[in-house]
UniProtKB/TrEMBL annotation:
This is 4Fe-4S dicluster domain-containing protein. InterPro entries: 4Fe4S_Fe-S-bd, 4Fe4S_Fe_S_CS, Cytosolic_Fe-S_CAF, Fe_hydrogenase, Fe_hydrogenase_lsu_C. It holds the Pfam family Fe_hyd_lg_C. The lineage of its organism: Bacteria, Bacillati, Bacillota, Tissierellia, Tissierellales. Residues 6-35, 36-64 form the 4Fe-4S ferredoxin-type domain. It comes from Caloranaerobacter azorensis. PANTHER family: NITRATE, FORMATE, IRON DEHYDROGENASE.
Amino acid sequence: MVEYFHSVVLDKDKCNGCTNCMRRCPTEAIRVRNKKAIIIKDRCIDCGECIRVCPYHAQQTQLDTLDKLKKYKYKIAISPMTLYGQFSLDKDMNKVFEGIKMLGFDEVVDEGYAADIITLIIRESLKNNKQPKPLISSLCPAVLRLIQISFPSLIDNIIRIESPMELAARLARKNAMEKYNLKSEEIGIFYITQCPAKVTSIKTPIGIKNSNVDGAISIKQIYGDIVKNSNTAGKTEDFVMGSAYGINWARAGGQSKSIGVDSYIVVDGIDNVIKVLEEIELGKLNNIEYFEGLACVGGCVGGPLCVENPFIAKSRIRRLSEKHNDEIKVSKEYAMELYNSGFACWTEEIQSKGL
């Protein structure tokens, strides 16, 4: 059995036992013994709340570095929807994506494009939903871990559709193999992450045996280099980007708005998510069609590995989606082909990790 990977780790040399992390942990996964914090791995969901509150930076995220790119012949970066909110509205995202390529990547894929596809799939799935209500979004890996540990009775409510990150990686790998006649192992796919829970979902994924993502690099790690490169980038290619619907997934409520469901609940902030999941477990919200639960305040724009204030980033995403207001460029037929073939779906059952 593969040992479960946790992206959140403790640097004991920096810890002075202040108990900030212990008091903040939503799953009571931290204890303090002999003036040092201890993470109880069976309880940890890698939400990153301890990282936010530690004044000594003792709680950290295990991440990859750009050196890992050297292992692969063809390198692909997946840019998260969140990245749109890290720059001013007048910033040319083609320049930003070119700045990412200049870090050593051969290709940059916008996660928002995959979110567009999943938006179409969920729209159709809700029409013939046979799962218990409310259907629970599979976007936030921290919420999925929380359900496994604290609300296993709600596992059947989780939608069995891949996250935009995984679908983007799966499509990018397939396209690169076909276009450049590459073997799968020659391709390295790296996600530019906003939170530690995404890192965990890469190393020990839910719903699939193995992730199509080979590594994770945080926005914080490379943001300065992206800014510098984008400011010096010359002529850029026209990158394929997600529509306003896909980009909107980066903020709380954007996903529900994009799929066009009438009866839904959007909850951000892990403590708030716990309270509403308790209501769902008691059967009080069976009249709701869709539950969008996000561990970070504001949604993914509030991830602890972002650089911008989450409220500013959330506002930018909203304004950007309103400004563009473009339609999804992917056809419904193509999206449903990916769904019906199983390409965009989970392949494994989710196991309860209830204590």
